[in-house]
Description:
Layout: H1 3-18, H2 24-32, E1 41-44, H3 52-55, E2 58-61, H4 64-72, E3 77-79, E4 92-98, H5 107-117, E5 118-129, H6 134-145, H7 155-164, E6 168-173, E7 177-183
Parallel strand pairs: 1-2, 1-4, 2-3, 4-5
Antiparallel strand pairs: 5-7, 6-7
Helix pairs in contact: 1-4
Amino acid sequence: MRPDVAAFDAFAPLYDLLMPATDRTALRKGLFCADREVDRCVEVGGGSGRAAREVGAAVVDPAGGMLRRARRRGLETVRGTAETLPLADDSVDAVLVVDALHHFADHDAALAEAARVLAPGGVVVVREFDRSTRRGQLLAAGERLIGFDSRFLTAAELETAVAAAGLDARPVEYGFGMTVAGVKEKE
């Protein structure tokens, strides 16, 4: 188990008390980029489901403690990692990654998996922290201090990574909290 996963498993009971609220507006802007109706949505690395509950998504996460919290909220949960999603090809309309990409072992593999499970016209919405901002630099330093193996991207790097996954990258929001959507081309 990656150190980040073990930490979140242990931290699960306090997570929602200490984390800021999800930016619902940024998520909805990202979901609006889809070229299809969004009925089936999953949050990858969704932890306790704080973002998933805002948009009615299921949660995929490797930390059992976090999944228990999400289930208590009435959310559908699946244990799995972002790099090997336990979902069928073209099976969802939207994939959310909220404040989690920096914890994934392989960003490129995670984004490729998100693209694989998207139905044509579906959207991946990545909400992350831009390491090029002053607050982003402080957050990255803080996570290193507590032992996380986090790897933050800049806005340009995130757009490039989304495009490299075969998605049409659409920047939604820039700043410390950035949002990039990636739409899968319709066949």
